[in-house]
Amino acid sequence: MYLREVKVENGLVRGLPAADPRITAYKGIPFAAPPVGELRWRAPQPAKDWDGVLEAYHFAPIAMQDTPGRNPNSIYTKEWHVDQNVPMSEDCLYLNVWTPAKSVDEKLPVMVWIFGGGLREGYPSEMEFDGERIARRGVILVSINYRLNAFGFLAHPELTKEDPEYPSNFGHLDQRFAIQWVKRNIAAFGGDPNNITVFGQSAGGGSTFVQVTSPLNKGLFQKAICQSSGGLLPPSLLSNDLQQAEKLGEKFFADLGVSSLKEARALDAQVILKQALSSREYAFGTIIGDKLMPDTPTNIVLDNNRNDVLVMTGYTGGETPVQSSATTYEEFEAFAKDLFGDRADEYLAICKKDGADLEQMKMNGKYNRFEIGALLWADFNARLNAPKMYLYKFDPEIPGDDAGSFHSSELWFVFETLAKCWRPFKGKHYDLARQMCNYWTNFAKTGDPNGLDTDRTPMPEWRPVQGEDRKPMLFADEAGMQEDPRSDLINFLIDYSSDKLLKDEPITHDPFAATRA
């Protein structure tokens, strides 16, 4: 008998068998009160109790955002934002659980998923996030929702006056509130509240980084996986410090035509959303200067004050490259100078290697921003003797007319949901997905991704980042450690960035500069 009905702190919840009847799926469980009316732009509040049994059979509405799939030029429209009629509401603080448990005393490891989307869009019911394959490995998967864009990350002087400790970062507070709910309630689903792994990708990976470094979260979870989070390079999630963010909030209110917080809370959610989507200027994101994030995550890591959790982090091979569009050598020199200042000659010397012409120089100087950020974190983790870290690079051949390991392409593999994708994946892709899902769930179980494959043979060994051994596991057509040494370009970029970080100087080759307004 599987756990089809459980009792959580607010009442009874009933789930349904997943496609695999050995898994029970619970969808749309409220973990906080609806953040509407007077609770708009406030830290999340406890959900109310309900009478009878909550039938958790359907995903709850997604958070307020642009209509998924409306942009025909986005790769993600074809990839997974295939339903433009997905329900949307400001009342969005719900989570989903996939559990293989038959009883409440199994103490299964738990993985809590935070979706990405630039803190502007995304939702836990995206089809690639099906938790069934993870649950089949004896791990409970929880996917959570949180407030986005202006609803989740607005700041304003009136909000600061109202609640000086939690004046913004409502989306991150939602994430934390959901993790706290999991810790209090997951035993009812057969889970171990003392073995929780938080993981996410892109903005979800950056959010995981925020949760790893927030001083509020000591002891809340034990492990974290940050996929394409930007690492230690300045991420776009860092919108502004609180004072700068408040000024943006004042402009936002003025553009809405309101003169007070009370008036803004009385507006229809669609009015707020329309204004938030009207300009790239309103790229609301993580704010520094409150109780959740008193300093930047990077500074907290460099001060060796991050939470004592085991970390896995990595990147894909084809995401957000830095490459000059220069048409003359003089333009290329200017490009190098803009990026690296008085160290531009070192960069140019690497680009000129073997007498390269301009086009080859541009190729020689091309690099992956996410890679540098992840390698930086791995290097500092080793230097600081911080808790163990595992590093990866995802770079297999991806079939399709846009072939390549693009940003987010590893999601099909981590969740082992390739069969839902339109791409003509082959046997080697399914083998890699099976192994990656194994590695991820092994890490959640024990803190070590290594173990046996389905046929009981050992998977390729994944060595942690330790001492001078800082190589990533390479997920190409097969899995295996990337043993070749770092290139001269990578070594230069790491050295340059490390020097800047240690001197607390701005890094001009910001990994997300191209995505900002």
Structure, briefly:
The protein has helices at residues 75-79, 132-135, 149-153, 157-162, 170-185, 203-213, 242-256, 261-266, 269-276, 297-302, 329-340, 344-351, 358-364, 369-383, 411-414, 427-446, 488-502; strands at 5-8, 11-14, 16-17, 24-30, 53-55, 94-99, 108-114, 140-144, 191-201, 223-227, 238-241, 286-288, 310-316, 321-322, 367-368, 389-394, 473-475, 479-481. The chain is an alpha/beta fold and 517 residues long. The relative contact order is 0.11.
Descriptive notes:
By secondary structure, this protein is of the alpha/beta class. It has two domains: 318 residues, Rossmann fold (3-Layer(aba) Sandwich); 75 residues, no CATH class. 32% of the residues lie in helices and 16% in strands. The strands form four sheets. An eleven-stranded mixed sheet has the order 3-4-6-8-7-9-10-13-16-17-18, with helices on both faces. Strands 1-2-5 form a three-stranded mixed sheet, with no helix packed on it. A two-stranded parallel ribbon has the order 11-12. The chain is globular and about 75 Å long. It starts with a strand and ends in a 15-residue tail after the last helix.
